[in-house]
Amino acid sequence: MTIYLMRHGETEWNVAGRLQGQKDSPLTARGRAQAAAMGRRLAPLLAVGPPLTLWASALDRSWHTARLLAAELACDPAAIRRDARLNEQSLGPWDGLTDGEMMARDEAAWTAWRRQADLWMAAAPGGESRADMALRARAWLDTIDMSATHMVVGHGVFNRILRGVYGGFGRDRVTALESFPHEAILVLERGRETWLDG
Q1: Do 68 and 9 meet the contact criterion of CB atoms below 8 Å apart?
Q2: Choice between 196 and 114, residue whose per-residue pLDDT is larger
Q3: Are 35 and 27 in contact (CB under 8 A)?
Q4: Model pLDDT, residue 116
Q5: Among candidates 123, 61, 59, 121, which has minimal Cα distance to 85?
C-alpha cells in the first residue's frame, strides 16, 4: 500500500490568519495553482501502477483541491471519496476565527487552551483533541484497501496526526512534527515516509 498525503491548497482564510477548523473558505488563485501543480508532479508517478483511490475530507477546501488534482491525473472527479474521518481538527465555536477574535470572545478559555502542557489531550471548548483525531485516523487506516494506492487531500493538523498513526510515532513526536506545507507531497509506504522533491 502507498499513500500520497497532501494538504489542500491555500485558502482565503489561510491568508487572513483564520483557524479554519471544520469551517470552510474558498481556495485562492494560488491555492488552485498549488493543487494543479501537485497533480502534475504526481501524474508521471501514477501513470502505471496499482489501482488509485483519491480521498478528500468532507470539507470543501479539501474536495476542491482533490478535483483539481483529479483533472491533472485524468481521474473521474465523481470517484473522489469524501470522508469526514479525514477532516481537520474541530475547534468547536472557535472554528473560523482569528486568535484575536477567540481572545475577545473568551480570553480566559483561549489563554487556558494555548497554555495547556499536554498538547495531545488539549481541546478547545466544544472542540476535539489530537487524541480524538488519532482515533479517526486509525479508523480510516484500518478500513482502506491495503493493495491500492491512495491519494489523500487532508489538512495541516490532520496530516500530522495521520503520519503519526501510520508510523507508530509516540504522542510527543507527533506533537512536535513540522507544519505541512500546501504544496508538499509526502509518500507513506512500507512503514516509512518520504517527501517528494519538486
Answers
A1: yes
A2: 196
A3: yes
A4: 86
A5: 59
Grid cell, residue 73, equals: 491525473
Q: Are the C-beta atoms of 124 and 116 separated by less than 8 Å?
A: no
Is residue 88 part of the annotated active site? The answer reads yes
Are 88 and 60 in contact, with CB atoms under 8 Å apart?
no
pLDDT digits (tens, 9 = 90+) for 48-77: 777 789 999 999 999 999 999 999 999 999
Q: Which three cell numbers stand for residue 68?
A: 483539481
Does the annotation mark 8 as catalytic?
yes
* Nine cell digits for residue 136: 479517526
Neighbours of 191 (CB within 10 A): 8
Q: Catalytic one among 64, 88, 128, 155?
A: 88
Residue 162 CB-half CA count within 13 A: 31
The active-site residue out of 8, 64, 150, 182 is 8
